[in-house]
């Protein structure tokens, strides 16, 4: 990262937000027209371009459900349903121009829709790229449901979702998966295909859902011979149109469609949904904050449009509150974090470095003060057996070499040790007995004990950290990367390290948590089988990972 990169303040200055709105309006009024500029507003369409002519759905000649269906953020009596209408997914307007489309939706007890429990209509507006975010309420808690959309003569694929158990009631078990880092150009999403057939209740996507880098006509490492990708993908994503089209490419992947159709997702972002290793209003290229916030606004808007997120996550220009809390009865509380939007700039030019005065400045933060307070306050009132923190970058100490004072990553929590100390102190003060951190980002599988003192192997374990392998990022991978022995020696609290692609499957009960690391042998060729590389258990009230 260039030495001249600027350290942002803890809050975006009002003039920067105003500049972002102003520049966005000028850019999109001249390049992609007024409706795209309206996409940076706070609310869903109500006036203006929202009054565009209604398209007669009977005239839609080609399947508009080319990008599949998805559901997300299960609550006890509610779930969010998503789809996007795009008969021409690689066209900027999806083939529907600036017209609104009426869509019917149905939720049923059975896959054949013989017992429909909720139905309604929604409008796919051009301002939000003909995406739908339907918040279905009035459902029973702790139930599996099936859903679909219909417009004109077209019916979407059927999706399967579920609601969470009642918040005040006990839950006997929960099985979830954690996934992250799915670089399209580095391989197939084979792990998603296997996960679609796995018996899990919910999937946590921990970031890097897409990558901003150019993708050539052959799909990079996929090396397509049966298709040619449009040249519009062979550039880095910068504009709202760029990000929207990149999501269309990802959503066209059949394995990603399959896993979304089978399981509800809880998503958070990391850096690549916007730009590599950005921090708050700074990117790695030294772009001015005003210009970068404009790019961030485009990325955030496209992310919301293309994910099963509720209206409360709708961005306001370059700002969006993605951190949120979900419950699974009294068995688990999930505090989903955002460690990108509010963080201080990475110390020491974002290069691996020994801890020092710059990285250890107590004023530095990876979460921002408001999110940190929200997290710790939520622990104080939690009555859950398991408190799970889905987030992005390595939380536990991870020494990168065997030197007496080793280098660590400045992009992970090691570069924000004061933040980590405050969070762990908050967990101890709140009496959190069973803490589990879920992490993505590094493309490999790790299992850590979270130590009270990471430099003292005999200190007590405050919790565990489960780091999921990537879905495709990094290519095929190997079981033991070249630094395997170094990392295990330098970090005695690291209990497992695997460099293959895959996902983690976690089962929680009131008595214990079990984590199974599921890996595939290759992602550059289709059809690799999945195996369980390792399994670990940590017992409630007695933290510390043990081989299962």
From TrEMBL:
Alphabetical list of PANTHER family matching this protein: ALKALINE PHOSPHATASE FAMILY PROTEIN (AFU_ORTHOLOGUE AFUA_5G03860), PHOSPHATASE, PUTATIVE (AFU_ORTHOLOGUE AFUA_6G08710)-RELATED
This protein's name: Alkaline phosphatase D
Classification via CDD domains: MPP_PhoD
Domain Phospholipase D N-terminal span(s) in chain numbering: 67-163
The organism of origin for this protein: Streptomyces umbrinus
Taxonomic lineage of the native organism: Bacteria, Bacillati, Actinomycetota, Actinomycetes, Kitasatosporales
InterPro entries per UniProt: Metallo-depent_PP-like (IPR029052), PhoD-like_MPP (IPR018946), PhoD-like_sf (IPR038607), PhoD_N (IPR032093), Phospholipid_Metab_Enz (IPR052900), TAT_signal (IPR006311)
Keywords, comma-separated and alphabetical: Hydrolase
Keyword Hydrolase: yes
Enzyme nomenclature, EC number: 3.1.3.1
Domain PhoD-like phosphatase metallophosphatase: 176-517
Pfam families, per database record: PhoD (PF09423), PhoD_N (PF16655)
UniProt-recorded Gene Ontology molecular function terms: alkaline phosphatase activity
UniProt keyword Amino-acid biosynthesis, yes or no: no
Top EC class, one word: hydrolase
